[in-house]
Amino acid sequence: MNGLRAAAKASFEYVENVFDRAFGPELNPMHQLGALGWFFYWIVIVSGVYLYIFFDTGIDQAYESLEYITNVQWYAGGVMRSLHRYASDGLIIVMMLHLLREYSMDRYRGARWFSWFTGVPLLWFVYACGISGYWMVWDVLAQYIAIATTEWLDTLGIFGETIARNFLNPEILSGRFFTLMVFIHIAVPLFMLLVMWIHIQRQNHARVNPPKGLAIGTLVMLLALSLFKPAVSQAPADLGTVPAIINLDWFYLAAYPLLDKLPGLTMWAIAAGGTLLLLLLPWLPPRRREAVAVVDLDNCNGCGRCVDDCPFTAVKLQPRTDGATYSDEAVVTGDLCTSCGICAGACPTSTPFRRASELVPGIDLPNHGMRALRDDAVAAAAGLSGDARVIVFGCKNGPDLNRLKGPGVAVLELQCIGMLPPSFIDFLITGHHVDGIFLTGCTLGDCHNRLGNKWIESRLAGERDPYLRERVPRDRIGNFWAGSVRNARLAQELAAFQARLAKLPPYQRSPRSTASKQPAENSATNG
Length: 527
Hints:
527 residues, Cytochrome Bc1 Complex, Chain C, 17 helices
């Protein structure tokens, strides 16, 4: 399973690198699948409300009302119907890609099981919405769906009478049954919205809106598709005949041909088994539990930076319990902690300049602490030689750092690049331990821990505490967010960075630094 997941991850990253070059990391749709799902959902809702205004729910009038909307009111209703159709298809596409991508990136186990577990039912809701929507058109496709679906439901044997008998002829079919479908098509999306909200409750700074440029581009694409290939009905339903040819929407109706070939109970077993497998996947096998972050109240002032920076809402503030003068203290919920260390990187007491007391931050990882990181960095720097001595900080989910080692290059692997406090960069450069610092990790916008490289860039840019002090020369800091597949390009960028360092004069600390406030050098951040 690990080999399959690794191959899928590499495949996704290669595709995403192409999109990075085409659109840039911020507008890369593969980095915004969840946000795009929300965007498509709202398009479906808005367009659906408009269509409902003009839609007649009577079984004899449904088809005619949609024909009016599509053909007579083509400039508004027709466009809205097409938007409704294509946004629904877009929703199922991004949901499937999102599911496969999170699996391949191993972002569904351990403390992250909740988002995966609550995401699985959303698949059923989306399909229920889509199938009931096609039913409401009441054309030959709706007729086929209605008969196939009710026959499938009848195989469960839990209904007093067979549902499929309602479709034996037009006289038997009740308008109330059609009204029930309309109710389902409206009620299920509302309940789905509740589950979508639950789905993101354990994510801090959850992305529910795509960047403006991506949203505009997606909407323009949908509008163009709606104008050039509008959604239309097929021939009206006729229960007195069996449709010879129907055109399926394969995004929503791919399973229906199987209903014609396999017994209904077999299809139920496949559906139930597949759902159960997806629900249990976070524990097949379970993720090895790492030690979670711990709070040291003697060094915690309740500033709340760790709370705001934690990607998974694992850190909260509560009233002080030790009688200290500060009003609050940080508390870690162990079941939510992924041991990424971003909280330690956000703590103002995570500074290697501390000498009067031990380096014990207000919050830290017990097995990957700041004191050990400082000792490792100093020891690694002492073993470097040459006129461009560099320490490369990377993360365990990013590129292969061992390929970068050399006489003038040392590497240190962190749980996440967001774990690195900017003060460590200051300490190593201004303390003449190294000539430069190079940062790498997951691709920009796709941190394994969601926010790591975003936070470190904001800290270096002086946009987020704890920020890098002005005295640190930015031309001695380089980075390239390589991900796990661009190892060769990473080596090239590091070599180019060392070449630039070699041309710089030795660093001299100035009482009044004139260093730029610009973020770390990133001439090739995204390749």
